[in-house]
Amino acid sequence: MRLYSLSVLYKGDPKVHLLKAAYDVSTFNFFQRSSVQEFMTFTSQLIAERSALGSRASVKEQEYLCHVYVRNDGLAGVVIADNEYPQRVCFTLLDKVLDEFSRQVSKMDWPSGSPATISYSALDGYLSKYQVRTP
Question: What CDD domains is this protein classified in (predicted)?
């Protein structure tokens, strides 16, 4: 059971844009890592774009399950995990991350923010903490 990506996005008008993300691509071949990360960023944006405000969904994409939660205020979170990772845990993680993000990052920064301008460093820690280690 693995988590590969945890993203926070803003679903504004007309597009969705990435605010902050963390990735764990360590299980992939070194030469595949950047394209896998690009795929995850693109897929996260696409799924958030196609989801309605106030909705939660799980979408299968290739061998991954993408869990998305779009809040009514436009803040969205996407977790990309393997098929075995428990869905309930993913949505608990998304709730926690989006609540914390909205408390730490001003709502005025969401529409114009980008990974370079948003200072929120907890995603890597959450991705690591929620990773299920197999013995």
Answer: Longin
